[in-house]
Structure formats: structure tokens, C-alpha cells
TrEMBL record:
UniProt protein name: Uncharacterized protein
Annotated membrane topology: Single-pass membrane protein
GO cellular component terms, semicolon-separated: cytoplasm; membrane
Species the sequence originates in: Lottia gigantea
Organism lineage string: Eukaryota, Metazoa, Spiralia, Lophotrochozoa, Mollusca
Keyword vocabulary terms for this entry: Coiled coil, Cytoplasm, Membrane, Transmembrane, Transmembrane helix
InterPro entries xrefs: MRVI1 (IPR008677)
Cellular compartments annotated: Cytoplasm; Membrane
Main location: cytoplasm
Domain of life of the native organism: Eukaryota
Length: 148
């Protein structure tokens, strides 16, 4: 039984330390991740812009109607890519939030189990103390009776 309590106390201490450490570094990590996301989004936007410029140049140089139709389709695909890039960025943020929620849920389970174990230990110790008080009072009452 005590190894089980020790295990939960150990996990509780680890989770508690992780929360304290995360608290100190959270703002900096958030800033770094936001900057990395913004840079990635800018890079995708720049590449799509460059692709669009190249397609426009090709469209101006081209005189064949069939090739212009293909270029028009390529422009439509570029528009779709821009929309997809925005959705991917948004979905990635949601995924990160859900993953963090799952980690927090596991950590909370450990904390709740630790608190439950502490409550059981308290109740056990409290009942033993009450029993000892009762036994002591009974002993004292018998002791006084035997003295009289």
C-alpha cells in the first residue's frame, strides 16, 4: 500500500515541478513559437507571391490560348494553396491546444489521485487518533475508578 502512495507522491512532485518550471518559461516559449509561426506563414506567403508573379509574367509572354487556359488554372490552384496555407496554420494551432489540454488532463489526474490518497491517509490517521483517544479516556476512567 505504501509503495502505491509513494508512487503517487513521486508523480505529484514531478508534475508540480513541471508546472513551476513551465510557469517561469511559458511567456518566452510562447513568444518564440509565435515568432516561428509568423515567420513560417510569411515564408509561405512570399513563395506563393513569387509563384503568382512568375505565372503572371508567363501569362504576359504567352500568346497561345490553350497555354493561357492552363496558366489560368494554375492561378486558381495558387489561390487554393493560399487558402489551404491559412487553414493549415489555424488547424495546427488548434491541434497544439488540444494536445496541451490532453497533457494537462493527465497531470490533473495525477494530482487528483494524489489528493484522494492524502484524504484517505488523513481519514485513516484521524480514525486511529479518535480510537486512541477513546481508548485513553476509557483507560483513564477505569484508572480513576480503581483508585477510588
Amino acid at each position: 500500500m505504501y509503495w502505491f502512495i509513494f508512487l503517487f507522491q513521486n508523480k505529484f512532485n514531478i508534475v508540480s515541478l513541471a508546472f513551476r518550471t513551465d510557469k517561469y518559461t511559458l511567456d518566452k516559449r510562447l513568444e518564440i513559437q509565435e515568432r516561428a509561426r509568423d515567420i513560417s506563414e510569411q515564408n509561405v506567403d512570399q513563395e506563393l507571391y513569387g509563384l503568382r508573379e512568375a505565372v503572371d509574367l508567363l501569362n504576359h509572354l504567352c500568346t497561345d490560348g490553350q497555354i493561357r487556359d492552363v496558366i489560368s488554372k494554375i492561378k486558381n490552384h495558387i489561390d487554393v494553396l493560399e487558402q489551404c496555407a491559412a487553414r493549415v496554420s489555424s488547424r495546427a494551432e488548434v491541434l497544439g491546444a488540444v494536445q496541451q489540454e490532453r497533457r494537462m488532463c493527465r497531470a490533473m489526474e495525477v494530482m487528483i489521485a494524489h489528493v484522494d490518497n492524502q484524504k484517505r491517509l488523513y481519514e485513516k490517521d484521524h480514525s486511529e487518533l479518535e480510537e486512541a483517544r477513546f481508548d485513553f479516556k476509557f483507560f483513564l476512567s477505569n484508572f480513576y475508578v480503581s483508585l477510588v
